[in-house]
Amino acid sequence: MRAENAARIAEAIHAADSIFIAAHENPDGDAVGSLLALRSVLLGLGKRVHAATPTPPPARFHYLEGLEAISTDPPAERPQLGIALDCDGSDRLGALEEALLAAEVVVDVDHHGGPERFGGIQLVDPTATSTTMLVMEIARALGIERPSQAQASALYTGLIADSGCFRFTNTTPEALRLGAELVAAGADPSELARRVFTIRSIEAVLLEGRALSSLEMLDCGVAVAALSLDDFAQTGASQELTEGIIDSFRDAIGVHAAALLKESEPDTWQVSMRGNDVDVASVARKFGGGGHMFAAGCTIEGPREAVQERLVAALRTAVREAASG
Ligand SMILES: [Mn+2]
Question: How remote is the CA of residue 288 from the centroid of ligand 1, in Å?
Answer without folding.
Answer: 31
